[in-house]
Structure formats: structure tokens, C-alpha cells
Write a structure and sequence with these properties.
By secondary structure, the protein is of the alpha+beta class. The chain is 29% helix and 10% strand.
């Protein structure tokens, strides 16, 4: 998941998968078929809370309507699997090849991204029929003993998981900018917890190997190679709302000396004074504040801040990680704190020993970052599960590293080679996954990437500093 919706491929234009232990043929077929059904079903499950009117809204050029996400992920399987490997396949509608192509110019000229919200047709029902049509046809491929087919199915599933996160962040942008502040879901976890004092962990650096080494990866994680790191320290958790508020109250948004040149220009052009989705309670009408006070058992929050979450607008939770900040805001905060942002390789070397599944992910049905001491639905504090340092889940962590190719990287041939390589310019790397990422999707070597001004993803801050 990225601003380019990018992933990666191997030298033949399909995802890279390492050799592993042999499995019984039948169980392997069942696992892939079951995984296909689960991932595809999850996309539709994310849409269950929506009203029909929600499916077609495109709140800005960078976002896409839910209906488009459902159709594009289906187009991916149809284009790169069924049309190439299913000899008797009949396309659901030939016109969809243009309509739901994202950016694969090798396939044809895509329908313009800023106009996706103009498409009232096909209807939502027709898009679901399209998904069913493709799913039925894929059933004939999923049991075939063909390595390339299997790898492309795996790529398609990882691609769909990327779009599941984009669906949530795009929906949040739509609903969060609505003056009514409607909730996407009312049953999301809202438990709070403490954060404790910020501490730093020291790392010795040295010559280290970075990049993918597991059973599946994207091409931007390859080739695995060595890097030299000087000794460094990383914060043991993410920056919290309360800590970011200190930056704001100290005039952080009014101090040009803290900002990169492009960052200060973005502050001035956009009028930034807080993270996206924050709203001062002083901006609300007196009657609205009185009503909210009654709804909150008499607690008076006047003078504080509200934050829109996918469960609705709520008083800001001080110990939750700050999110929806741009790379410019993350960098300015780090300067103000006397620190810096980590490089992507510092982050990877520190996170590699940790369990990438142990974190607050979309599966936890919170869909918002949580504090270090959050207990989650199972009542187990994160420090007891090995997730207390928040390397995985919660928030994508901005790094200072430019998104570019690793030494020896070559763009794969064919249209699938457009997935990642052509976007390696003018973007920064983020690491770790977020509260909207499906569990099991990310790993230590996973590289997300966005443009520095972007704020609508669940992007947060981890501090770093040099060791003399």
C-alpha cells in the first residue's frame, strides 16, 4: 500500500517467493484457495457498514471511492491471471479494462484518477457481480500446479490487502471532513491506556544485511544487501498526542526555523496548525459543546481538542500515538525535540528481531492507534506480548530515507514491472504497518512510500538520535 498502490515483483514480473519446505499437494491447494476466499471476503466485509451513497464518493484526487477499490482489485486478478492463463475465460465487460486500470500504461491508458468519483455506473451491484464472476473463474486456476500462477495469485492477494487499508483511509478522509463527523462503525474498541516516559534504546550499528529474505516479498525489498550503520538510538515507542501538543503549544507551527523549506511552504499554503482530523473544541458552538458535555456524563472538555476516528469524533486521548502527520511535521517535531527521524535501515535493523504480527492491526477492530499499555480485546497488555515498542501496527513510521532502488535492483519486464519501480522518485519511506493494515501483511523489510506532504494515511513519528 502506498501513494502509488505499489507492490513488487520478481525477475519474471511476478512476486519473489523463496523456496521453502515441501507441502502435501492437497493441503497447499486448500491453503491457497482458502486464503484467496478470506482476503477477497475481507474487502467486502469492510464495506458492510457503508450506505449505498458512500460507495461512490471520492473526497480528493489522491483517494478513491470504495466501489473503485472493489472493482480495481478484481481487475488485477482478471488482467494478470485470467486473461493470461485461463484460455476459456470470457471477460465480464471489456470496457472495464480501461475503467478500472490504475496506472498500468503497458495495459492501456487508464481512466483518469481524479475522475473516479464521477462514475455512477457501473452500479455497486454490478461491481459485486463482477467480483463474483472473477472469483468463480479463479477457482479453476487456484488448484493448478503452476508456479507462476501461484505467485501471481499471492501478489494479487497482497495487492488486495494494500487496497483494504486504502479503503479505510480513503473512507476516513470522506467521513472525517463531513461536518456531521459520522462514524464508519460504532463498535470499534476505544479503550485507553498509559504511555509511560519516553526512553531510548541504543543500537551498536555496524555492517548489517537489509532487505527481504522470507517466503514472499515485493521487488522494492530486493536485493538483500549490506549497509553500514553508525551507532544510534531509537525511541522505545511512538510519539504521543500529548507530546505533540507540547510542540504545538510551544509555537511549533509558527517557528520556521524548525521546518524544511518545502515543509514551511506547506504549512503556510495549507494553514496547518495541528495534525489532520484534530479540531479545537473552541471552534464549536456553545450549544454543541453543552450537548456533548451532557452526552459525556458531565465531563467538560472545553478548551481541549477533539480527534476524528473511524468510530466518530472523540476527545483527544493524550497517550495514544499521534497520527495523520506529514513527513514535514514529523521532521519539525523531531528537530524541536532535539532528535531526528530514523533512516529506514536503522528502523529495519531494530525491528527485525521483533514479531511482525504482534501489534495493533486492522484485525483488532480498533482502527486507531493505541497506547503502549493498551490491553486490546483479549485483555493482555502489549508489554506482555512483545509489542510494547510499537514497531508493528498502530502507525506507519516516517523515515528520513528517500524511496529509491536498492543496489542491483532492476525493474521487472512487462506491465507488472510498473507496480513499484516507476515510483522511485520524490517520495519517502515509511515502515511498520498501521492499525488499518491486515495482520501478517508487513515484515521488517516492507517499504511503504508516500510524498512528504501526505497526511491522510495513519502516519506517525518515532524519534532517533546519534550516539557519539
Amino acid at each position: 500500500m502506498s501513494s502509488s498502490e505499489g507492490a513488487a515483483t520478481g525477475v519474471s514480473g511476478v512476486p519473489r517467493m523463496a523456496a521453502g519446505p515441501s507441502e502435501p499437494r492437497g493441503s497447499h491447494d486448500e491453503d491457497l484457495a482458502g486464503r484467496y476466499a478470506r482476503v477477497r471476503g475481507q474487502s467486502e466485509a469492510l464495506c458492510e457498514p457503508l450506505a449505498i451513497e458512500d460507495y461512490g464518493v471520492q473526497p480528493m484526487d489522491d483517494a478513491s471511492p470504495p466501489k473503485w477499490h472493489l472493482a480495481h482489485t478484481t481487475w488485477f486478478f482478471e488482467t494478470f491471471l485470467l486473461k493470461e492463463f485461463a484460455t476459456d475465460y470470457q471477460a465480464f465487460d471489456d470496457r472495464y479494462e480501461v475503467l478500472f486500470n490504475s496506472y498500468y500504461n503497458g495495459i492501456g491508458n487508464p481512466y483518469p484518477r481524479p475522475r473516479r468519483g464521477f462514475l455512477s455506473r457501473p452500479t455497486v451491484g454490478e461491481v459485486y457481480d463482477y467480483r463474483a464472476h472473477v472469483d468463480n473463474a479463479i477457482a479453476g486456476l487456484v488448484t493448478r500446479e503452476d508456479g507462476e500462477i501461484r505467485q501471481r495469485i499471492e501478489l494479487g492477494l497482497n495487492h488486495e490487502q494494500q487496497h483494504q487499508e486504502l479503503m479505510l483511509t480513503d473512507l476516513k478522509y470522506n467521513l472525517g471532513l463531513n461536518p456531521l463527523k459520522p462514524a464508519y462503525r460504532q463498535d470499534l474498541d476505544r479503550e485507553a491506556g498509559g504511555s509511560g516516559p519516553l526512553k531510548f534504546d541504543d543500537y551498536p550499528g555496524g555492517i548489517l544485511s537489509v532487505g527481504a529474505g522470507g517466503p514472499f516479498c515485493f521487488d522494492n525489498e530486493l536485493p538483500r544487501h549490506r549497509v553500514l550503520l553508525e551507532p544510534f538510538a531509537l525511541a522505545g515507542r511512538l510519539v504521543t498526542n500529548a507530546e505533540f501538543l507540547e510542540f504545538m503549544e510551544d509555537g511549533g507551527y509558527e517557528s520556521p526555523a524548525l521546518w524544511l523549506s518545502d515543509g514551511w511552504a506547506a504549512v503556510c499554503a495549507n494553514g496547518w496548525k495541528s495534525p489532520l482530523y484534530w479540531r479545537s473544541q473552541e471552534t464549536r458552538s456553545q450549544e454543541t459543546r453543552r450537548q456533548e458535555t451532557r452526552n459525556q456524563d458531565g465531563r467538560n472538555q472545553d478548551g481541549g481538542w477533539l480527534e476524528y476516528r473511524l468510530g466518530g469524533e472523540r476527545p483527544l486521548v493524550p497517550d495514544d500515538p499521534v497520527v495523520h502527520v506529514s513527513a514535514y511535521e514529523a521532521d519539525a517535531y523531531a528537530r524541536w525535540a532535539g532528535c531526528r527521524l530514523p533512516t529506514e535501515f536503522e528502523w529495519e535493523s531494530a525491528a527485525a528481531p521483533q514479531d511482525p504480527r504482534a501489534g495493533n492491526f486492522a484485525d483488532d477492530r480498533r482502527l486507531h492507534p493505541a497506547s503502549v499499555e493498551w490491553r486490546g480485546r483479549e485483555g493482555v497488555q502489549r508489554r506482555e506480548t512483545g509489542a510494547g515498542n510499537q514497531f508493528y501496527g498502530d502507525a506507519w513510521e516516517w523515515t528520513s530515507s528517500a524511496y529509491g532502488p536498492y543496489p542491483g535492483y532492476r525493474t521487472p519486464p512487462g506491465a507488472l514491472g510498473e507496480y513499484n519501480g516507476k515510483f522511485m522518485s520524490n517520495q519517502l519511506v515509511l515502515r511498520g504497518g498501521s492499525c488499518a493494515t491486515p495482520r501478517g501483511h508487513v515484515r521488517a523489510s516492507y517499504r511503504n512510500f508516500f510524498y512528504p506532504p501526505h497526511r491522510w494515511q495513519f502516519s506517525g513519528i518515532r524519534l532517533a538520535r546519534d550516539l557519539a
